[in-house]
Amino acid sequence: MTLLFRGDDAADRAAAADLLRTGHLVAFPTETVYGLGANAFDSEAVRRIFAAKRRPANHPLIVHIAALEQVLPLVSVWPEIAQRLADAFWPGPLTLVLPRSARVPDATTGGIDSVAVRIPNHPIALELLRLAAVPVAAPSANPHTRVSPTTAKHVLDGLGDRVDAVVDGGPCAVGIESTVLSLLGSTPHLLRPGGISRSQIEAVIGPIDVAPSEAILSPGQAPLHYSPTAKVQLVDPLAPNRPGGRITFGNTSSRTEGSTRILTLPVDPEGYAAGLYAALHTLDREFAEIAIDTPPETPPWDAVWDRLRRAAGPRK
Ligand code: TXA
Ligand code: MG
Question: Which of 98, 218, 224, 307 most suits a substitution to test ligand 1, by most atoms within 8 Å of the C-beta?
């Protein structure tokens, strides 16, 4: 049985935080997507995250904290550049990868010597983290390789009673995952585009490396990720309808044309990102094929394009 907590209820938040602190799995809203949380210092609890998601044990998790002073026990160095990024973007959708401290268990980092950390920008997440008073390891709360959840219902649909509790905070505002930036090498390296753009980061710390890197472990970069069960194809916005689901963008409203269900997302990349996963979840329930009209290929769309390519990536 999964407990469903209301994020707008103080007693519910306190109960959820107690569960987190005592080794249970609690899914909770962040500004990006819902996370599947457990006490990051509790190896046993963290192992249950991997079991619930059917996620390979060597895929490292992001550790979520409520305040900057919680970062020092997690890392072995805290460079000046990390401080500048934290000052500029935390709380927010930027995850920093740093050398880990001995306190962070192997289970949390997938056995590697670095740790990913962020302060989420969501009042419910922040309060849960404060009340739990432990760092919380949380991958997106979806079965491995499936589309990330942006509502509590998506979490329940995907994980059901493999999670002890879900805190409902309504839909996530950003809608795609955080940007992951490695600070391990001499030049900061973008491992996953996301809620904070490359140009926002470069405005604060100068040029970063964005070349895909085989050397840096970031399993979220596997081509098969973020995939619906349906077959996804990227199509020209002018291409004729085919039976199934279709995701477009612009000023038209969502509609059904013949045997095609068309969902319309906003034309701006932030608005589009905020609605993308919900559209995929909706169409995935109904159709075996989903066509996605290709948006502009300009830098503000980088994070969206990353997710679209993966959604349309190779099948298992
Ligand atoms: O927005 C988000 O980041 C959401 C919310 C819940 O915070 N979380 C999320 O977690 O997307 P997950 O596990 O689905 O993705 C974590 C990403 C993966 O691409 C993983 O490889 C990378 O972060 N990562 C984590 N630790 C790492 C490390 N030590 N080195 C390199 N990459 C790491
Ligand atoms: Mg994920």
Answer: 218
pLDDT tens figures, 96-113: 999 999 999 999 999 999
Does residue 150 or residue 218 have the better pLDDT? Answer: 150
| Residues bordering ligand 2, an ion, CB closer than 5 Å | 140
CATH class of this structure's domain 3-205: alpha beta
Helices (H) and strands (E) in the chain, counts: 9, 15
Distance CA(288)–CA(284), nearest Å, equals 7
Domain ranges of the chain: 3-205, 231-311
Task: Count other C-beta atoms under 10 Å from residue 109's C-beta.
Answer: 24
Number of the ligand 1 atom closest to the C-alpha atom of 184: 30
pLDDT digits (tens, 9 = 90+) for 258-283: 999 999 999 999 999 999 999 999 99
Residue position matching structure tokens 């194809």? 233
Give me ligand 2 centre to Cα 142, in Å: 7
Phi, psi for 99 (deg, rounded to 5): -60, 135
Q: Rounded CA gap, 296 and 62, in Å? A: 30
Letter string b/e over residues 140-173, b meaning 16 or more CB atoms within 10 A of that residue's CB: bbbbbbbbbbbbbebbbbbbeebbbbbbbbebbb
Whether 135 and 66 have beta carbons less than 8 Å apart is answered as no
Which of 53, 63, 77, 95 to mutate to test ligand 1, by most ligand atoms within 8 A of the CB atom?
95
Could you read off the pLDDT of 112-143 as tens digits, one per residue? 999 999 999 999 999 999 999 999 999 999 99
Q: Please give the Cα distance from 213 to 234 (Å, whole number).
A: 25
User: What's the whole-number mean pLDDT along residues 197-202?
Assistant: 98
For strands 94-99 and 231-235, give the pairing. Answer: unpaired
- Give the pair of three-digit tokens for residue 7: 């994020």
Q: What's the mean pLDDT when you consider all of the chain? A: 95
